[in-house]
Amino acid sequence: MPSGPDADSAAAATPDPAASGPTRGERAGPRLLPCGESAVLIEVTDTAAAIDLARRIEVLRSQPASARPLVEDIVAGQRTVLVTAPGAAVLSDLRRAVTELIWAPMGSGDSRAAWPGELALVEIPVGYAGPDLDVVAAHTGLTRDEVVAAHTGTDWVVGFTGFAPGFGYLVGGDPRLVVPRRAEPRPRVAAGSVALAGPYSGIYPTESPGGWQVIGHTGAVLWDLHRDPPALLRPGLRVRFVDAGGPS
After folding, report:
1. What would the CATH number be for the domain defined by 121-243?
2. What is the pLDDT of residue 235?
3. What pTM did the predictor assign?
4. DSSP string, 51-92
5. What is 1-114's CATH number, 3.40.50.10890, 3.90.1150.10, 3.30.1330.60, 3.30.1360.40?
């Protein structure tokens, strides 16, 4: 289970010579890195930038049927976007297309396609009686009711998934809810625990150790192999927490 928001890290690599970066004195931008024989990895500044870039790259999957497919999959991470090609033969074309998207001026043409799941919304009922609710209230200067109102008052977005099947790192919530992890992780956190850590919110899909601040519980099933797809929370999905008025 995630013990903190540091969910992914890219191995050090030499920047792809196909990527034209900014000259000295210009604002630093994404870095396009090689990643095996049929993929490219783009490093960005934060999760919001990764989400935005993944959405922009999605346009490459919306090419006419007559065009040669360039993109097999797009995987957003905490500060990276991995783009895989159908094979090594089209990798150079993929690098070129991604480079053009990265450095294209914002708003130039139709440079943004819908990311799969981003228009969908899932509501998660939560009983806000978590063991760390008072801790979060004290850290933020909010009352318990204000913490609940802040958590439910803004739609979150699944920025990326990782660590355990079904766990989504949710971003875009109320900035007042940015809190540190617990000083000492718990050896066991119940499945369905709704928690906060750094700028993220998340739901533990299974019982496991964890160091996030638990503010509530949901009965929603995050991972079910008999469901298609198994994960309830997928990148791009909007998540709305709903106060269930008691333990859920």
Report:
1. 2.40.100.10
2. 87
3. 0.75
4. HHHHHHHGGGGGS-TTSPP--SEEEE-SSEEEEE-SSGGGHH
5. 3.30.1360.40
Is the backbone of residue 9 left (phi > 0), alpha (psi -120 to 50) or beta?
beta
Low-confidence ranges of the chain (pLDDT < 70): 1-28, 63-67, 105-119, 246-248
pLDDT for residue 101: 85
The tally of CA atoms less than 13 A away on the side-chain side of residue 88 is 4
Largest separation between any pair of C-alpha atoms in the chain: 59
Give φ, ψ of 57 to 5 degrees. Answer: -70, -25
**Integer Cα distance of 63 and 82 in angstroms:** 19
Half-sphere exposure at residue 34, Cβ-oriented, CA atoms within 13 angstroms = 11
